[in-house]
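User: I'm preparing a small set of examples for a lab meeting where we compare how different chains pack in three dimensions. I only have the primary sequence for this one, and I'd like the structure in token form so I can line it up with the others. Please keep the answer compact; I'll paste it straight into my notes.
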Amino acid sequence: MFDVFGFYKFKKLTSLKKNKVLLHDYLIKKNIRGTIIIASEGVNATISGKTSDLKLTITKIKKILDFKKFDSENISRSKFQPFHKPKVKIKKEGKVESFNLINSWADVTLETWLKLIDFETGTKTEEATETIAALSDIPKKLIKELSLSDVAVIMSKVGELQAKQDTKLKRIIEINGVEYGFHPDLDSISLGEYADIEQFIKNGIDSSLPELMAVLYRPIKLKKNDIYIIDSYDGDIRLRAEEMKQMSAEQVQSALVFFYTLGKVLSEIMPLYLMERLKETKTQ
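Assistant: Understood. Below is the structure token output for the 284-residue chain.
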């Protein structure tokens, strides 16, 4: 097993070239791999090695750069050595750029969320790269230069935002100036609606989310306070499914939470509904 250690420390550093040589030589001596980046404003690194060697290296880094405690640190374990070789880099002076990550899960559209779901089929590296690119304005080329510890922090933040989302059903949403209402009366759901929902579930909910939302949400034709009437269902949802891609992932996931209840309701309603229709047919 190998320990993987990430850290950063803000501290005014001098003698960068000298310290680069000292650090690099010690990494080689202790068979430590990974990258250390030193700059006039501090040090940032992700390195890996055997537990005892890594502990000695951490102590040596603090001694060479003259500090006692990291500003941030994290450690994990790996069954294999994740890095090919040791590297110590000096960060060049230049313009400092800042980039933005989404503020909440409500900032993510269904269209983007579908891409995130698709990224899960690739490698963990591809998933992390594409997820950060989709949810931030960091250029993909720069993402690939981030340290593993930075990537871990960003992905952790993304997970945190998703966990904090509001799961309360949004019965009325607005897309491109049009108000759509969630089906207000599931007891009166039509056979056509039920059949399409059933087919979308069979096809795979993840790949049919826009279509599923297009059945559950329809344009509001009359509204007074919290009471509304939606357009009747005609089965032609192609254009509306495209509009639904602009829903927020938060709106969609809150609808899916409610959809679990919907499934239970439908399983109870449908047999009774069909029996009633059969009785009506016999009496005609």
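A couple of notes for your slides: Residues 249-283 form the longest helix (35 residues). Confidence is low (pLDDT under 50) at residues 269-275.

User: Perfect, thanks.
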